[in-house]
Design brief:
single chain; alpha/beta; two-stranded antiparallel ribbon
Amino acid sequence: MHEKLFDPLKIGAIEAKNRILMAPLTRGRSTQPGSIPNEMMATYYRQRASAGLIISEATGISVEGLGWPAAPGIWSDEQVEGWKLVTNAVHEEGGAIVLQLWHMGRLVHPDFLGGNPPVSASATCAPGHAHTFEGRKDYQPARALGKDEIARVVGDYRHAAENAKRAGFDGVQLHGANGYLVDQFLRDSSNLRDDEYGGSPENRTRFLREVLTALIDVWGADRVSVRLSPNGETQGCDDSDPPATFGAAAKVVEELGLGFLELREPGPDGTFGATDVPKQSPLIRQIYSGPLVLNSDYTPEQAVADIEAGRCDAVSWGRDFISNPDLPERFRQGAELQPNVNVPQSWYLPGPEGYIDYPMLTKSEETVGG
């Protein structure tokens, strides 16, 4: 019934063995202090290596860019060594994994920055609360990055990409979604600049282009991808004209020839900006000619329909991969999916519970619904 999902797919230089990709999922299990990946994380990714491609959890490119408790980083030698445990585990199981590069911008609380303000496209403040090691705290106003600082941040992305290569990843993905720094530059509610990085949609994509160009210098375009969320308000970021803004972003991705583009388009019940705003993927599909991956709240049947209709080439699943490490096999067998337990606490709290203790299919279960 779901055979189309098991067709191999070439996404840039990566040969995906199926079209069931694992979406990036923040899990907060790195070793502290130092935000260092560890053996438990390697076990978690090893269990899920049957995905056509794993996109890693969002990973901080610098101290400045990481504001989530116990999320991992990729700026230090210790982090590189920790990530080698993960990439080796995935490769031993015949899988492929790319590292998602993350700068949270104004969503970093000053507690992570020695009391200093976070940085963003403009001097704005996100609504709501930040997660800190001491619990929830109100977001604080960000300061605008100067042009010389923008070049420095682009350099931080380049350094992170170089470290990802040292750590053994198969490529990198730029996190350009969900109201984080790249998104803060893209959208006109958070980008109030009057220089060449602000104003028109083309100007607001300049930072995106510069970062992607740096990543391509390190990896080659066919091992670089980007995730965008071309929807409504997301963690306080919104845009007055999504077709113009994300059409311009898609044009950048097309001109640079990236390995693939992933779009997160949640429905009314999605996390990080549930929305009923019209989806931009049909427009983006007309502009970007490379492999397109869609994400959010898909059933296998819906994924097959969108792939067969040419609306996308693959689909990435997030929460279903948390509780179903062998998700592709469950789809293949038509087996029942296990629900997430102790949600949302187990998504982010330390320890193995709700992380690496979800069982694989047993022989008796494989016939259920198959």
